[in-house]
């Protein structure tokens, strides 16, 4: 790919670590907020997006190479993606409000 660092570049791991550190700190700040509140909605959707993209990336990496570390990482990301999608579907505050009556 054009302008992409090589696969063995430590830059990719550092960028992923920075993204997970930022996600973890936002989760820590919003830990007292309900999952369906005005602030909790953004946290749940951010977590869902992060883990869905991570699991899709892991699946793509499994196509290229099949090693134990990639399989475990993909399985963990897929588990968290499923949990956050379930939380997003079950939580009452995350559902769209009905349209106002005319």
- Secondary structure tally: strands: 0
Helix content: 55-70%
Mean pLDDT: 77
The portion of residues forming beta strands comes to under 5%
Given as residue ranges, the uncertain stretches (5+ residues, pLDDT < 50) are: none
Q: What is the count of DSSP helices, taking H or I runs of 4+ residues?
A: 3
Structural class: mainly alpha
Biggest sheet statistics: none
Helix and strand succession?
HHH
Computed over alpha carbons, the radius of gyration is: 17 Å
How would you sum up the global shape? elongated
What is the CA–CA distance across the termini? Answer: 53 Å
Feature tags:
single chain; 102 residues; 3 helices; elongated
Describe the structure concisely for a colleague.
The chain has helices at residues 10-29, 38-64, 68-90. The protein has 102 residues and is mainly alpha-helical.
Q: Overview of this structure, please?
A:
It is a single chain. With 102 residues, this protein is mostly helical. The chain is 69% helix and 0% strand. It is elongated and about 55 Å long.
């Amino acid at each position: 790919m054009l302008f992409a660092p090589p696969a063995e570049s430590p830059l990719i791991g550092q960028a992923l670590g920075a993204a997970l550190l930022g996600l973890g700190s936002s989760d820590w700040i919003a830990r007292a907020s309900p999952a369906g509140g005005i602030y909790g909605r953004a946290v749940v959707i951010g977590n869902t997006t992060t883990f869905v993209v991570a699991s899709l990336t892991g699946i793509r990496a499994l196509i290229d190479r099949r090693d134990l570390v990639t399989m475990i990482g993909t399985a963990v990301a897929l588990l968290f993606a499923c949990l956050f999608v379930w939380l997003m579907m079950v939580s009452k505050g995350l559902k769209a409000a009905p349209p106002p009556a005319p």
